[in-house]
Input
Amino acid sequence: MNKIKPLAFKCFAALMFIMAIPSMKAMAQKLSDPEIAHVAVTANKIDISYAEIAKQKTKDPEVIKFANMMATDHQSVINQAIALVTKLHVTPKDNAVSKKYMADAEKTKKMLRSKSGKVFDKAYIDNEVAYHKAVINAVQNVLIAQAQNAELKGLLEKVMPTLKAHLQHAEMVQSNFNGHGGHKM
Amino acid sequence: MGMAVIKCRLLGLMLLVFLLYGCTSGTQSEQRTAPAVEKPKYEVYTVNIKDMKFVPDTLTVKKGDKIYFVNRDLVNHCVTEHSKAWTSGPIQPNGEYLLVADKSSEYYCAIHTIMKGKIIVQDK
Output
């Protein structure tokens, strides 16, 4: 029995590694500025689509407030990204990273649509925490790191505090759901 | 012929003296009557809304001072008094909101409730 646990853990770790390979492979590719712009817009659009589902399904005022904020803020970022690429005469280009984000988002939306009530609220907020962590990591270590144009890099850097504030807000709502409501907002 | 030239020159000279006098006296008159530039009775402060924070987050001013809240972020923000006694409404990126300091207030961004600030108003 004692040997089964480490074996099960190794199997689980191996499975997680295999599942992460496409994402790592997609991220490892060097992105051009038009591709970076496409990833940035896609990542924002995905979070708006999650917020739209939340606004349809939840009755929790905190979740409604959070979802409204996500929809407004990410649309504002998209608007500024589009204004910048228009100014730079850059056309965002679809790529493996954007495709991976979209494929993952379809699975997540299916999962969210299958839930309701408090179970949905928790799933939505848990996903917002995980998604913002992943996006912050990607923007910091891939998009900013690989962007060539100074203005595009600057816009991505300027987005970071907003993403971090979203994560902080999502973690506070998550904390309230988990019964640690010490951060009433 | 000679007299005509002299008359003409005299008239020209008189005209020149008249014009010079007019210009000079006008200037002197303006200098005498120009109102003294009054110093504004208030100070002007700026609170930048930047990187999802109010900077500075605490500001001490005198009653009647003007405070401009300038949104330097990518997203909309607002400035709302703690008990909702007043609010700016949404301030778009690069937009601003003017508040005339009346009394000490704690405020926050009602869109991003983790953003908070304070104004301390002192009597003059």
About this structure: Strands of chain B lie at 44-50, 53-55, 58-62, 66-71, 80-81, 96-100, 105-108, 116-122. Residues 22-30 of chain B have pLDDT under 50 and may be disordered.
